[in-house]
Write a structure and sequence with these properties.
3-stranded mixed β-sheet; mainly alpha
Length: 133
């Protein structure tokens, strides 16, 4: 991202930042993400928010959906690949409110969405984020 950028990053830029974040992660963590798709959307869909009990769409910055990573070898024919959803508008709001670098924020969301599915501890996830920084 350019220091002179004066407009909100679009979905394509968020996706490039996510790809760069993934490339910086430790090899063991990247191996767990084989076949996982990253999708950038402005907000989570209303049914997703309702299922999670979230009223304000700005409260959800990311979500992992699909069969847990590590169980993919047992996927059924026609089953969709797992997806890490990054929600652009909530990410941008959090970026503006906290002052945390957007790249760091995207890395944090990816690590935590995947980490929760593996049962990683907060310390494990923090170490992965540090290694990717």
């Amino acid at each position: 991202m350019s220091e002179r950028q004066t407009y909100a990053p679009d979905a394509a830029l968020i996706e490039r930042l996510a790809d760069a974040a993934l490339a910086r992660m430790p090899a063991q963590f990247r191996a767990l993400l084989e076949g996982v798709v990253v999708r950038v959307e402005d907000f989570a869909e209303a049914d997703v928010l309702a299922e999670l009990g979230i009223e304000d769409p700005f409260d959800l910055t990311g979500l992992y959906t699909g069969r847990p990573v590590g169980e993919q070898e047992r996927m059924m024919p026609g089953e969709l690949l797992p997806v890490i959803h990054l929600y652009r508008r909530p990410l941008l709001d959090e970026w503006a409110e906290t002052g945390v670098g957007l790249e760091d924020l995207i890395t944090h969301v990816i690590v935590h969405e995947v980490g929760h599915h593996f049962g990683f501890s907060d310390a494990d996830m923090h170490a992965i984020e540090d290694a990717a920084g």
